[in-house]
Design a protein that fits this description.
It is built from 3 helices and 2 strands. By secondary structure, it is of the alpha+beta class. The protein has a domain of 55 residues. Strands 1-2 form a two-stranded antiparallel sheet.
Length: 80
């Protein structure tokens, strides 16, 4: 499999931490989906107020995600 990733792309995050699917959370769209149009209604949604802060909120630049993975989680992001 070959994946192409645009370096100036966006990463979207769900607003509820993922838990294994069960009968009580199967319909929790805030946990299972990352769509902005859905998650913007979540009480946990954090808006990114300015374009120069690309590492804030539930919609972030892919560059900020790679930076976080490299600096905070010690992940080798050279070939991502």
């Amino acid at each position: 499999m070959r994946i192409f990733l645009y370096n100036d792309g966006l990463a979207r995050f769900a607003t509820t931490k993922y838990k294994k699917v069960n009968d009580s959370n199967i319909k929790d769209t805030f946990m299972h989906l990352t769509n902005y149009s859905i998650n913007k209604f979540s009480k946990n949604f954090v808006f990114n107020e300015t374009s120069d802060q690309d590492d804030v909120g539930h919609k972030r630049s892919i560059k900020s995600v790679f930076k976080y993975l490299k600096e905070e989680k010690n992940v080798n992001t050279e070939h991502i």
